[in-house]
Structure formats: C-alpha cells, structure tokens
Design a protein that fits this description.
alpha+beta; rod-shaped; single chain; 5 strands
C-alpha cells in the first residue's frame, strides 16, 4: 500500500517557510523602526542644542562693545545652563565683515551628538549699526536652519 501525500507535505513545508520569512522580515523592519526612532531623538536633541547655543551666543554678542565683536572665530560653547550630556557638543562660529558698510555678520551654531555623529545647524545673519557712543546695535536679518 502506497501513501500518496507528497503534495500535502510539500504544501505544508512551503507554507511554514513563508511564515518563517514573514516573521524574520517583520522583526527586521521593527528593528529598523526602533533605530530610526533613536536617530530621530538624536536629531531633535542636536537641533535643540544648536538653537540653544545660537540664542546664548546672540545674547552674549549683544552685550559686547564694538571692538570686541569677533571677525572670524570658532569656539566650542561652554554650556552655562548644563544642557549637554556626555557625548554631546555645541559649537559656535562667528563671521563678521567690518570692512564695508553696512556691517554684516553671521553666527552659526552646531549641535552634535557624538554617539551617532548626528549634527544640526542653525544660523543667524545680522546687521551692525555703530551708534555715536560706540555701542553697536544689532538687528536680525535672517534666521536659517
């Protein structure tokens, strides 16, 4: 007596293989989604750090005298408000053209999460008008992200 159930065996093995591949694909896609969520968190953190550094450097720039406004300078921002954790960094770059009027400058802030090397920048373009008492008046022309 012969059993002729080869088709059913082939069908069940094929169906099991499809289920295993679907399970592997689902777990891989969920892993990628979780990685994307972590990367998005780092991008938001870096953008927040950059905007915070820009605001703090703008406030510092407005308190400077005319002679103290930096022409070209880049510095790692010292964080007085303790916004950064380990592995996070804020940098600020000043570029000011004082050769021709109207004087114009740019402050660029960079926030970096070192663990994933995600960086976000924002910048502020401003005009400088020197008053008679040598105090600069800074007006914002453009903010870009």
């Amino acid at each position: 007596m012969q059993n002729k159930n080869g088709f059913i065996t082939f069908f069940i093995l094929w169906l099991g293989l499809i289920v295993v591949f679907l399970a592997i694909t689902t777990s891989y896609l969920s892993h990628l989604y979780l990685q994307q969520a972590c990367r998005y968190r780092d991008m938001v953190t870096a953008a927040y750090l950059a905007e915070s550094a820009l605001v703090q450097s703008w406030e510092e720039l407005q308190l400077m005298d005319w002679q103290d406004i930096p022409n070209r300078r880049e510095k790692t921002w010292e964080d007085p408000y303790h916004l950064t954790d380990d592995g996070q960094m804020m940098r600020v770059r000043y570029v000011t053209e004082k050769r021709q009027k109207p004087y114009r400058g740019t402050v660029t802030a960079v926030g970096t999460v070192k663990r994933t090397m995600v960086s976000r920048t924002c910048s502020l373009t401003y005009d400088i008008e020197v008053m008679e008492d040598k105090r600069p008046v800074l007006t914002i022309r453009n903010i870009s992200y």
